[in-house]
Amino acid sequence: MKQQYDLLVVIPVGPNCKIPFIADTLDSIIHYCLCPYKIILIDDSKKDFGAQLKQNYPDIDVIINQQRFGLLGGLYITLSHAFAYALDNYQFKVLLRMDTDALITGYNPQAEAIEMFDKNSKIGIAGFVKRGKEPRDFAGNAVENYWPMHQITTYALTWRFLSKPKANLALRRLVIKALLNGYAMGENVFGGAYMVSELFLQKLHEANMLPDYGIQKIYLEEDHIFGLLTKAIGFELGDLESGNLPFGVSWRSLPTSPEELYKRGKKIIHSTKIYKDLNEADIRQFFRDKRSIRADDAFFKEIKE
Q1: Strand segments (E) across 3-161
Q2: What three-state secondary structure class fits 268?
Q3: 3-class secondary-structure state, position 42
Q4: How far apart are CA 148 and CA 57, in angstroms?
Q5: Cα 143–266–263 angle (5° rounding)?
Q6: What is the pTM of this model?
Q7: How high is the mean pLDDT in each 10-residue block of the chain (305 residues)?
Q8: Are 38 and 8 in contact (CB under 8 A)?
């Protein structure tokens, strides 16, 4: 019988990751996730990072890639293997996929996602939804989304299709299926951190899309690919970022200051690498200090009781 969890957390680990920062991200999960959870690391480092981390975090699962798949379609393959592993071994309410430079900063970040998926089973993936050329995040920042729109149109619907005919034929078929289900060209949920439902992953698995090696070589990021797959199988993208919803995420830096993210009650943030003159060590120290304060606060004690 499969073990049951409220939350699974899947984290891909590459060769440029730093062990202390990964450990800090793991500590944030342990501190704030007050529910049954399981952490799954995908070790794509070829440096035994997973084995090193398991020495101090023995309860985590470590999946070791036998070959490095890298980014773009390769990361889609890596994540698909992890998602299939999750389905094979566990039952769960939601799965959080997060980068090593993402961080949990609030209690029970899975709660809003569970509620969303329970209310609407057709939502498969949720987080910061990007539609159109320049959507805006919760903080009002304009976010570039033209690239996937251009890539998909170019390689699925123009003569550039011939550059990689096998992969681009698979892409074209996906695009047609997605468009028939109301797909807006290039729409996706930002990949640094997002939630998916077990039902959604089961349907992807049944459709032979965990993974579909035929699309490994298409020139898209993994979140753009999953956006396409979501609509191709008739599921929807869900917003968990706008207003005071739990996600506060951006690509290469934080979307706003650590103080503002904390004030707004954001529970899942990305990227901790930089914000203005703050580096990753500074940002992580800010939120580590907040964890120390919250360990003694009334809210924490009430939940524990």
Answers
A1: 3-13, 37-43, 61-64, 90-98, 103-104, 123-127, 129-130
A2: strand
A3: strand
A4: 37
A5: 105
A6: 0.94
A7: 96 95 98 97 93 97 84 89 98 98 98 98 98 97 96 88 87 96 97 98 97 91 97 98 97 97 98 98 98 63 46
A8: yes
